[in-house]
Design a protein that fits this description.
It comes from Dictyobacter alpinus. The chain is mainly alpha-helical and 164 residues long. It is built from 8 helices and 2 strands; from the N terminus they run ααααββαααα. It has a single domain, classed as Arc Repressor Mutant, subunit A, CATH 1.10.10.10. A two-stranded antiparallel ribbon has the order 1-2. α2 crosses α4 and α3 packs across α4 (67-79). The chain starts with a helix and ends with a helix.
């Protein structure tokens, strides 16, 4: 790796650490303020399946978590009445997860509180054009990461660090 790319990679790591720390603290605060008894993992599952019904293995892949780690989280969401398991009419082995009306309402309530967050305020300050440019560049960067996989040892460590 040339020194410019190495230096840029170090800066990306530092910036991502700051963004993730802020995002994690902000999410914890929003969940505490809402007083609805959701953990960050539970919120992330609700958020992910709000876009479309998907199987547990799809959710776990998208969130970078092992299905065995995510299964108890999903089971708790089902028991709380926020998520339901469905049967796929085309593949009876597949059981997509989707939000119940109560799950949608819970997620909507949390999304409405998003306007006060530091991330939301910072993106608003940047304006719509720069915010969209940032999102586009981040998505391009993430897509590029998918074409340069981490070796299995590093991937395993990364997944477990998200559980803490």
């Amino acid at each position: 790796m040339d020194s410019d790319a190495g230096s840029a990679a170090d800066k990306v790591r530092m910036l991502c650490t700051t963004i993730m720390k802020t995002a994690r603290q902000e999410l914890m605060q929003r969940l505490d303020d809402a007083d609805i008894g959701l953990s960050p993992h539970q919120f992330l599952v609700l958020r992910r399946i709000s876009e479309r019904a998907m199987a547990l293995n799809e959710v776990s892949r998208d969130l970078g978590l092992d299905p065995s780690t995510l299964a108890p989280t999903v089971e708790l969401l089902v028991r709380k009445g926020l998520v339901r398991r469905e049967r796929d009419p085309l593949d009876r082995r597949r059981t997509p997860l989707s939000l119940t009306p109560e799950g949608s309402e819970t997620l909507d309530r949390l999304q409405r509180s998003n306007g006060e967050s530091p991330l939301h305020k910072s993106l608003s300050t940047m304006g719509p054009d720069k915010s969209q440019q940032l999102l586009s560049l981040l998505q391009e960067f993430v897509d590029s990461l998918d074409t340069h996989p981490i070796d299995e040892t590093m991937h395993h460590c990364r997944n477990h660090s998200l559980d803490k």
